[in-house]
Each structure stands twice: as structure tokens, then as C-alpha cells.
Amino acid sequence: MFSTERVRAGLEQLTRAYWREGYVDMTPEPETEVDDDQKTIDLVIKIDQQVQYRVGSVDFWGVNAVTREKLMASLPKPGELFDETKLDEFFTVNRTILPSDVSRDDVRVERHNKTVRILFDLRVCPQQAN
């Protein structure tokens, strides 16, 4: 049976697969053709993969050099493919050495041509320092 929910899940998995290869702007476009006589649905997914990004630089604000080196170990290095999924893993892997209030909102990804600058703002807010 055709399942819209399973198609959505498949599109999410497809998107994540493209993200792992640096195609963070990839857009899947499902097209369906219904044959009422045969009671079938043909599903074609057109993919606009767009630009493949590589890591240009990774910057950290608010950490010392030792902590920076530890954090860098779980991220793609400059020149490697930018894997958007690694950012989510980064917080899980480094939970014990990151400030307690840090979240995905503290990361900025800036696109420049075919590279990205990843900026982590890990500075402690003044009201939390007291």
C-alpha cells in the first residue's frame, strides 16, 4: 500500500544522505502518477543536488586552545566535505566538555561559494557567569 508517511521518511533519509556528502541545499521533488485502472502509483523523485560544500574554516569563540583541539577532533577538517549531520553528533560526543547551556543555536554556518565557515559561539552569557 502507498504510504505518504513512508515517502516522507524516505525523503528525510535521502536528504540526510546528501547532507553527509556536502549537498546541504539539496531539494527532492516527488512526482506521482496515479493509474486508477491498474490501482498503482508511480513515484519519481527528482533531485536538485545544487552545490557541494567543503569546510573552509572552523572557529570557536569562548574556549581555550586545549578545549578547541578536543572539540576539533569530532568535526570535519578544512578541505573535507561539509557533513551537516556531524554538527548534531558534535553535541552528543562533546557534551561533557561543552558549557551546559550550549545548543545547536550557538552554531552559525556561513556559506561562501563552495565552502562553509562553521562558527561555534561558546562564550558564557554574563548573567550566567555570576
Structure characterization notes:
It contains four helices and five strands; from the N terminus they run H-E-E-E-H-H-E-E-H. It has two domains: 4-48, no CATH class; 54-129, membrane protein fhac (Ubiquitin-like (UB roll), Roll), CATH 3.10.20.310. The chain is elongated, with a radius of gyration of 20 Å. The strands form two sheets. Strands 3-5-4 form a three-stranded mixed beta sheet, with no helix packed on it. The protein is 29% helix and 30% strand. It starts with a helix and ends with a helix. It has 130 residues and is of the alpha+beta class.
Q: What is the compact description of this entry?
A:
This protein is α+β, with helices and mostly antiparallel strands and 130 residues long. It contains 4 helices and 5 strands, in the order H-E-E-E-H-H-E-E-H.
Notable traits:
two-stranded antiparallel sheet; 3-stranded mixed β-sheet; about 130 residues; alpha+beta; Ubiquitin-like (UB roll); 4 helices; single chain
The low-pLDDT segments are: none
Could you give the order of the helices and strands?
Answer: HEEEHHEEH
Q: How big is the Rg? A: 20 Å
Give the CATH topology of the largest domain: Ubiquitin-like (UB roll)
**Helix amount, in percent?**
25-40%
Put simply, the count of helices is 4
Bin the strand percentage. 25-35%
CATH class of the largest domain: Alpha Beta
Structural class: alpha+beta
CATH homology superfamily name of the largest domain: membrane protein fhac
Biggest beta sheet summary:
3 strands, mixed
Strand segment tally: 5
N- and C-termini, Cα separation: 59 Å
Q: Roughly what is the average pLDDT, rounded to an integer?
A: 91
The name of the CATH architecture of the largest domain is: Roll
